[in-house]
Structure formats: C-alpha cells, structure tokens
C-alpha cells in the first residue's frame, strides 16, 4: 500500500449522523498514476444510505431553526479549516484522482470559496412584501429550506463538486447526504472530518461511500424524506435519476455533460486564444465538463493558430501529479484511456490529421500524450462526444454564421468559449450561443460569484452566485387578511 503522508485526514468509512461507519466489506481506492493501493474503504449500500437520509431528516428541524448568522459562523469555521488543510487535502486529492498538485490546491481553494460564499449568502436569504389587491390584506413572501438534500457527485472534482452543493444546501438551512464517486471517496470523507471539527451538528452533513451506485442512488432519489436531489455526472445517468425523482416529484438540479465549442475568429488575439485553450482544454488532463471539446477556428487563421498551439502543447509536461512540474496527470482509469484511443482512431480513419501526440505516454499506462488533431469534421464521433482526455480536435469554419451553427449543433448546452476583438461580433455571439455559460476571450470561467449550469441536455439549476440558493429554498406566501 502506498504511504500517504496526509494520513491525519484519511477516513475509511461513511460518515453518518456524526459517526464513522465500519463494515464487513471494503473497496479499494487506487492511485491512477501508479495503480498502487491507497486505502481500503468500508462499503456502504442502500441500508446505510437510508440511515443517512433519516439522520439528515432528524437533524433538519434544528439546523433550519438556527439563526442564519449561526449557520454562517459554523460554515466560516469549516471554510477556514479547509484552507488550513489545503496542502494535505490537495495531496490526498492528487493521490486518488491524479490531477497535478497545483491544480489540486486550486480545487481545494475553489471548493472552499463556495463554502465561504454561501456562508455569507446565508445571511441574505431575503423574502419580499408585495402590494396586496385590497386594503385589508398584506402579502409576505418568505424563503424556506426545502428539507433533506441528497447528492451524487463525480470523480473529476472530488472536493469542489461536493463543496459547492453542500455549501448552498447548508446555508439555506437544508441538511445533506452525498454519495461521492467510488474512485475518489477520500476527499469527500476528509471534508466530512473537517465539517465535524468545525462543529457542524451531527446529521447535517453525511457522506455515504460505496460501489453500488445504483442501489444507493435508488434510496437518494426515491426516499420519502428526501426533498431535493442534486447530481453532477453524465447525461445518461442524469436522465435515469431524473426519472427516479419524478415519482416523488422531488426538486432536481442536474449538472450533466457538455460539448463545449471554443471558437477562434480571424480578428482574435491568437496568442491569448492559445493560452485560453490550454487552460480550458488541458486542465485536469481534459477531464472536466466545461473543457473545450470542439475547437472551431476560422479558416484564414487556422494554420497560424494550429502552429502556435502545437508549440505551446509540446511544452506541457506529462507525469505523476505529485511531481512538482507535472501539468498533465493520468486519466482516471483504463476505460477512460480506451475511450480516448477509440475516439482518436475513428477521427483519423475518417480523415483527421495527427499534428502532435496521439499515444499513451511513457509516464504510465493511464497517461495520454497531449494531442492536437486537425481536419476534424462535425460528423466525427470526437466532435459529438465528450472526449474527457487531453486531445484538442480542431475544425475550421468560414463565416460567423457557420461558426454559430456549428457551435449550437449539439444536444448539450453547458459552456462555450469564443475569441474575438470585434465588439459587434462579441454581442452577436453572446446572444446566439445556446449555452448556460459563455467565456468571451477567457478560458476559465467558473467561480463562486457566478451561476454555474447548463441549458438543453446539459441540465438545469445553477450552482454558485446569489442565484445558487434558489434551488435549495421554496417560496412560501403568507396572506394576512382581516386587517
Ligand atoms: P462519470 O463518467 O463522471 O463517471 P457517471 O454519471 O457515470 O459519470 O458518474 C457520476 C456519479 O454517478 C458517480 O458518483 C457514479 O458512481 C454515479 N452513478 C453512476 N451510475 C449510477 C446510477 N445508475 N445510479 C446512481 N448513481 C450512479
């Protein structure tokens, strides 16, 4: 077993009602860089998921009744503890997920920023008064927490995807149960340890770790005491979970797949566009739902852009995320590597050109070389599916209208990016792109102050910003009569 120096934060079982759980069976957590065993974690299933929901339900009334300032104080403490342990949490995250340590530190700070943001927002959960239609009435609108929130999160941001859901839920006065991806349970459990240290009461924040996602998911989407379900993951699984939630008419937030276009116009600053693309495409080895997936470059600058990109990509350093200078870590597992290989092969056999990379890297079996493909077309699978690997697939277009049509030609609508210095074009594109988030001359768009979320089959609901509390509260209208 690989020695883990951040072992003070290692927990090896679910956290339910303020207590660490044991079990007869366990599952393995491995380092995707080396396939070394990191930990054996006690396996939870449907029964434990139910216990967690009941604990959250039991804790709800007390937590919701706390003054907002008290919830905010505990959340601020949680935020501070996360930041105090940023280095250890980042190391743990890199060990189980693979991303370079600098990115892991960034993720811890990013996740913590949601806890801080929503601690502040908790105090501004304002209602409304509305002029009544008659003199003897008053209309008052209050926002109340929905109740128990259940969530399922993916492995690509093992800390932040939990932090940004839990922070909004707890700030609103909801209690929370999360099932993290089985590949990355340790970051989730470390967050629970710090929530406990911060004094967040038992039952308010629960983590259920196990390998039978379907069984746990059944409980989290169908249990009568769950009021709202929040999911980040693939569109296919999300659709299934929406159906399960429909039976109980549960509130749902879905942050699903994307197929982000990254458009470079002939009036763009090409060097800035290359830098933006590096950040958007190669972060987390291409394994984010907002990664540039279809790079659309105007024909007149396509060669110049590809040349500049190739120079920049050649300099990316592939290697174990714990090595200080590594920029591209491993993919999460062998299946992820196989998917990238398949998509690339299909593209090449359909006429794409390999400019750079294109192989499994010598750093290890799950490391893929940063790759650039040109002559890609919209009909290729690589332009239709999320690549989730470090492969930049470049298509060309002629006119602005072509670019808009190509960009919108997808069932997804999460993030889009474009580079242009023409102010008219900037506004036309901002209007025409059918995506929930648009990066304009910027490749990194996500932060706690802004609403993160998609349209079309990328889902619904928003995380972060002052809008982020809306999904966790119900409006209650009080009609005062007889005045
Ligand atoms: P990814 O490609 O990121 O693994 P998934 O949608 O498969 O996307 O996984 C996201 C999360 O959904 C993970 O926590 C996973 O365990 C969980 N999951 C996968 N299948 C199901 C299912 N049928 N029911 C509930 N949760 C699921």
UniProtKB/TrEMBL annotation:
The keyword Zinc does not apply. GO terms for biological process: gamma-aminobutyric acid catabolic process. The keyword Oxidoreductase applies. Gene3D superfamilies: Aldehyde Dehydrogenase, Chain A, domain 1, Aldehyde Dehydrogenase, Chain A, domain 2. Keywords: Oxidoreductase. SUPFAM superfamilies: ALDH-like. The active site is at residue 255. GO terms for molecular function: succinate-semialdehyde dehydrogenase (NAD+) activity. Residues 22-477 form the Aldehyde dehydrogenase domain. Belongs to the aldehyde dehydrogenase family. This is Succinate semialdehyde dehydrogenase. It comes from Arsukibacterium tuosuense.
């Amino acid at each position: 077993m690989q020695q883990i120096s951040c072992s003070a934060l290692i927990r090896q079982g679910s956290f339910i009602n303020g207590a660490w759980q044991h079990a007869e069976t366990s599952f393995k957590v491995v380092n995707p860089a080396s396939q070394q065993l990191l930990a054996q974690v006690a396996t939870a299933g449907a029964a434990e998921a139910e216990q967690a929901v009941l604990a959250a339900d039991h804790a709800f009334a007390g937590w919701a009744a706390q003054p907002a300032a008290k919830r905010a104080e505990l959340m601020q403490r949680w935020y501070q503890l996360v930041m105090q342990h940023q280095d250890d949490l980042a190391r743990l995250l890199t060990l189980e997920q693979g991303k370079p340590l600098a990115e892991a530190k960034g993720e811890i700070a990013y996740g913590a920023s949601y806890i801080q943001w929503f601690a502040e927002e908790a105090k501004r959960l304002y209602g409304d008064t509305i002029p009544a239609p008659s003199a003897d009435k008053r209309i008052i609108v209050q926002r109340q927490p929905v109740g128990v929130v259940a969530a399922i999160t993916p492995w690509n941001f093992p800390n932040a995807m939990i932090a940004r859901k839990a922070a909004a839920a707890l700030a609103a006065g909801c209690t929370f149960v999360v099932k993290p991806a089985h590949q990355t349970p340790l970051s989730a459990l470390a967050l629970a340890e710090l929530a406990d240290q911060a004094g967040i009461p038992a039952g308010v924040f629960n983590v259920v770790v196990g390998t039978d996602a379907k069984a746990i998911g059944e409980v989290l989407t169908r249990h009568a005491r769950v009021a709202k379900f929040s999911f980040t993951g693939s569109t296919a699984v999300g659709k299934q979970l929406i159906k399960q939630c429909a039976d109980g008419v549960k509130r749902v937030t879905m942050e699903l797949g994307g197929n982000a276009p990254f458009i470079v116009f002939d009036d763009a600053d090409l060097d800035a566009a290359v830098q933006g693309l590096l950040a958007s495409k190669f972060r987390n080895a291409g394994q984010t739902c907002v990664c540039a997936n279809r790079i659309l470059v105007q024909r007149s600058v396509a060669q110049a852009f590809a040349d500049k990109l190739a120079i920049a990509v050649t300099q990316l350093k592939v290697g174990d995320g714990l090595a200080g200078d590594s920029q591209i870590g491993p993919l999460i597992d062998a299946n992820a590597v196989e998917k990238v290989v398949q998509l690339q092969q299909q593209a090449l056999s359909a006429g794409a050109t390999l400019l750079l990379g294109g192989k499994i890297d010598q750093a290890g079996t799950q490391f893929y070389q940063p790759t650039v493909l040109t002559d890609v077309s919209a009909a290729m699978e690589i332009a239709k599916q999320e690549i989730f690997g470090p492969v930049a697939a470049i298509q060309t277009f002629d006119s602005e209208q072509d670019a808009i049509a190509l960009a919108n030609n997808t069932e997804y609508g999460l993030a889009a990016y474009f580079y242009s210095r023409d102010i008219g074009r900037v506004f036309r594109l901002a209007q025409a792109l059918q995506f929930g988030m648009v990066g304009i001359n910027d490749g990194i768009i996500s932060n706690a102050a802004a609403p993160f979320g998609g349209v079309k089959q990328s889902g619904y609901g928003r995380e972060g910003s002052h809008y982020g509390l809306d999904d966790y509260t119900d409006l209650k209208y009080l009609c005062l009569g007889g005045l």
